[in-house]
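Supplementary Text 2. Reproducibility record for the structural model of the 103-residue chain.

All settings were left at their defaults, and a single model was retained for analysis rather than an ensemble. We include the record here because the model underlies the residue-level annotations in Supplementary Table 4.
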Amino acid sequence: MRAGVPDRIRQEIVNAQDVMIRNNVSADEQLKLLTQRYGQYAKFYKPRGVVFTAETLALRERMQRANEADMMAILRPDQQKVYRANLIRARQIEACNPFKANG
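Retained model, structure tokens:
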């Protein structure tokens, strides 16, 4: 972002990006809309992130659950309690990740 951009504009840009990500706006459309609206303040680029298919995400989820079940099977009951609490905490943190929508 260019020097001297007002904080209000910076926050508008962040909010606009958040809304577009939540609404699954394509990267091309995001780039177009941000450049039209805020091009005088910043230069925007198309993200180069990896995009996962729904099938890949589902497979990763199944593999993760299987790994967790294997781990629970070898732990003592007192260890299982701690492991389960850590899994819950990790899932809560993951749920807050704005980039979780696709990978």
